[in-house]
User: Fold Oxidoreductase from Nakamurella endophytica.
Amino acid sequence: MTAASASASAPAPDGTAQSGAPADTWDVVVVGGGPPGENAAQYAIQGSDRTAVIVEAELVGGECSYWACMPSKALLRPWNVLDDARHMPGVKSLVGDRGLDVAAVLERRDTIVNHHDDGSQVQWANGAGIDVVRGRGRLAGERTVEVTAADGSVRTLHARHAVVLATGTTAAVPPVPGLREALPWTSRDVTNQHEVPARVAVVGGGVVACEATTWLQALGSQVTLIGNAPGLLPRNEPFAGDLVRQRMEELGVTVHLSASVDRVERADARDTGEGHVHGGPVTVHFGDGSVTVDEILVATGRVPASRDIGLDTVGLTDATDRRGYLPVDDHLTVTGAQGDWLYVVGDLNGRALLTHMGKYQARIAGAVIAARAEGRSLDGPWYRDTADHDQVPQVTFTDPEVASVGLSEQDARDKGVDVEAVEYDLASVAGTYLLREDYRGRAKLVIDRAADVLVGATFVGPDVAELLHSATVAVVGRVPLPTLWHAVPSYPTASEIWLRLLESRYSPS
Ligand SMILES: Cc1cc2nc3c(=O)[nH]c(=O)nc-3n(C[C@H](O)[C@H](O)[C@H](O)COP(=O)(O)OP(=O)(O)OC[C@H]3O[C@@H](n4cnc5c(N)ncnc54)[C@H](O)[C@@H]3O)c2cc1C
Ligand SMILES: NC(=O)c1ccc[n+]([C@@H]2O[C@H](COP(=O)([O-])OP(=O)(O)OC[C@H]3O[C@@H](n4cnc5c(N)ncnc54)[C@H](O)[C@@H]3O)[C@@H](O)[C@H]2O)c1
Assistant:
């Protein structure tokens, strides 16, 4: 605890603040302690004597740390290592056709989610001068947040400058007959699975469905994926979903696309706890087909946590969009709120459901809160969310990985950009051949022909994740292509794909 925050509340032995503290007023009150909430609090007060508090209903660190990004990537990495080893002469004879050590993989995952203990996160917050109040928060008028603790006690917090809402999302379960009653797995179960069901039906075809399918099959499940879109990963360039599907099928996954689940039957659904199989066999009916499995995973998108956060108490009853997200302006201030005190960062504003984008928004919101508190102007590059406008990077950690930034070719055309696209086989650069002789992958640049700059890039292949930031710099910096020509990629790295792509477009004049 810093002196500044200690004066705002009395600390409990675990570092969280307690009811009955002398003053329940902070400069900034943040509702929701995921990474965006944490960062908003940090950036709003750092280098000042302002105070901040995070209200958290579950664990500080949020969905990302315990039930999403971190456990999913922990479950995916061992497969990458094993698959690389299986294809590397000099190593593959040592590995043979052995599978993963499932118990060790799950144990490492448990270490990475810190066994669902958020003590170190609370310690970080306190070290940054941020208090933590446990409980469920909701607005209760302007600059006021009411917190209901697990024991039912209610406490009212006041903010001098700002309230930041960062309550995120939960898994959506579509209204399919029998589905809810079957107690299906959602992202929380599959990222925290303690058992490996022999047969799993994965419903969805987006990022969660494709990543989860990758680790489920690697752990030994027989997976049937049922998606209602015509391709996998439909927000990406179509070749990305095609390559991911091709690899899934090679590994034994059954993929049904343009297929809608219409009915689910499970005779003895039981709530056996997170990550355990929730009862006996379940039959999933879709179109003309059906499949009987030991567990069903629903990965069909997210629902914003905007329902019970007191928007009505500040005149924002109709402020959410039709999906329930709470729109903001580029200062991350809620559209339509009176005065400049209410901010939304992270998934809840619906701009980009990604941790790194939520944290970026939080850095902007924090800087805006600090500037407004100090009466400074909001002119300048630090105070506006620009990256959410067509410059969002994302890596999907499937086999192969999919890394993209900015606009797909189709999105760019839909926006009226005069587009030219170049594509190249990632396997034909020396750097990837050295990684794997059987390397398969593809890269694509989307070029705004008039401005001669990149507006999008996609890389698909093993280990492409780290290639992405070069493209993000080029897209955000609007680096002219003739200038990129002088950014020489090292030999022999996968980055030489940049040279090949630019050669396809070489036109000195
Ligand atoms: C399986 C999976 C894998 C993912 N992998 C990645 C990835 O690799 N990379 C990536 O960038 N993104 C990934 N994402 C997306 C990422 O998890 C989210 O974008 C991110 O968690 C959003 O952060 P947030 O703080 O806005 O919301 P959340 O992480 O949902 O956090 C919200 C917090 O608010 C708390 N809260 C909610 N309501 C209240 C209330 N009323 N009072 C107090 N507290 C409240 C919750 O308990 C929670 O701690 C993944 C998502 C899933 C489902
Ligand atoms: N590596 C990462 O960056 C990462 C990993 C996981 C999740 N995330 C984020 O989390 C968010 C949620 O991911 P998600 O995959 O749950 O949602 P999503 O919106 O990306 O995909 C949902 C998919 O489910 C399909 N679908 C919807 N209803 C269906 C139905 N009734 N039957 C069959 N299919 C159906 C849709 O066609 C869509 O493809 C995403 O926005 C994503 O960016 C990111």
About this structure: The two ends are 62 Å apart (CA to CA). Residues 1-15, 18-22 have pLDDT under 50 and may be disordered. The longest helix spans residues 355-373.
